[in-house]
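Protein of interest.
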Amino acid sequence: MTEPVLLLAASGLARETLAAIRAIDERDGTSTPVGILDDDEARHGEVLLGSPVLGPTAMAADLQDRLVLCAGRGAARRAMAQRLDGLGVDPARYRAVIHPAASVGEGSHVAPGAVLLAEVVLTADVQVGAHVVAMPGAVLTHDDVVEDYATICAGVVLGGSVRVGVAAYLGMCSSVREGVRVGPDAVLGMGATLLGDLPQGQTWVGVPARSKES
């Protein structure tokens, strides 16, 4: 049975997610994108990769299609989910999107609303929370936990037993040593190497990574 899917936010991530959904549909015929919702009225009527921008995100409350939040930043996805919850949208409508070229290892779990793009690897017993986004080539190894709304950019590598907090952001090609904690809403800069815990809300950069303010 084919599930119609609506994407929320007419973003670059939406275009990447559209490609992933179409790859899933080509593989097994289970998903088809029916359109995009965005709160920018100037975008209404646009067509992104063949999918029309139908109207504001609040329309999701009046429809029954499965949903994927495609705002690029985790904080924006969190705010969108909270707003939709206030409109009575059932969380069961959120759909995980796992590109056929991603690898999900034994014992791993991907929560509803998460997006794993091509070549993402979860090795074993990895837990991925709701509305997490993992960009191409990210590698999450044994016993990692990525909490809701986190963003894992392209080429990120996590050692074993890493915990990434809610709405944290790991920049492109950054790496995190095994057993390290990344706090909620924290940011690890592009190409940084994190060897110790990154506190909540802070931004660290460099090799080894240090506070941007130090």
About this structure: The domain at 5-93 is CATH 3.40.50.20 (Rossmann fold). The longest helix spans residues 12-28. Helices lie at 12-28, 74-86. The chain has two domains: 5-93, 96-204.
